[in-house]
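Backbone-to-sequence.
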């Protein structure tokens, strides 16, 4: 099965190498990787860290296209990356996860044949409800006697996942680059995008006891170096306690 890789990254070469090594061992080596697209934002680190990231990427992927914008923007990064999807299923990822379980085409293809537009390896952050075979989120439905009633709707998010190229392109077309690409999937922030996402389904890939197949390591890094994330009105701002980053 041929795939393309798309990845958001910042200037953290050690974290990037840890991420890529784990995915190479458990996932990339089991697929035919045609090309990798990487958005390398100028956040954290310095020029030497950026050069080290490029070295890591080029050693991992024979064909890689690296975009280096002048200012960092997670929303703009995902919009560009998902807009690159063409003939192959795209595996979207970020530079701060590790792959815990083996994955190969036989895990993914059955979901695509059943009509799913994306397949997400299970993470703790999904807060997955087992009665749903696909990712969901809560959405305000209506108010009754002053109480808000919620319903479950299809969700997509931006955690690592396989995405059909046509769906990736459609999402990219609607993404607002100045806003967090995950938060704006809510109806009160980007209604057109929410409508699209909720009309599709992202299957959840699990193993055995349904334990996480990938794990976020970015939160631990942020806590270690003193960085916190604040989202207001769909826009993400990183607060740096350490000004040298």
């Amino acid at each position: 099965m041929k795939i393309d890789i798309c990845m958001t990254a910042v200037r953290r070469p050690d974290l990037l190498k840890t991420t890529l090594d784990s995915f190479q061992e458990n996932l990339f080596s089991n697929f035919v990787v045609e090309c990798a697209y990487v958005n390398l934002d100028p956040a954290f680190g310095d020029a030497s860290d950026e050069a080290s990231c490029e070295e890591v990427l080029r050693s991992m992927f024979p064909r890689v296209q690296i975009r280096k914008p002048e200012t960092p923007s997670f929303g703009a990064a995902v919009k560009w990356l998902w807009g690159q999807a063409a003939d192959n299923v795209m595996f979207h990822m970020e530079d701060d996860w590790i792959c815990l379980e083996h994955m190969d085409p036989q895990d993914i293809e059955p979901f695509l044949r059943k009509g799913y537009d994306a397949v997400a390896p299970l993470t703790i952050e999904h807060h997955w409800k087992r009665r749903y075979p696909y990712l969901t989120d809560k959405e305000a439905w209506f108010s009754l006697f002053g109480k808000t009633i919620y319903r479950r709707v299809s969700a997509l998010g931006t955690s690592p996942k396989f995405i059909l190229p046509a769906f990736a392109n459609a999402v990219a077309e609607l993404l607002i680059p100045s806003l967090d690409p995950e938060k704006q999937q809510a109806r009160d922030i980007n209604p057109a995008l929410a409508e699209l996402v909720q009309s599709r389904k992202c299957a959840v890939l699990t193993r055995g006891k349904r334990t996480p197949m990938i794990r976020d390591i970015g939160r631990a890094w942020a806590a270690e170096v003193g960085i916190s994330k604040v989202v207001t009105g769909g826009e993400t701002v990183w607060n740096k306690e350490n000004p040298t980053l």
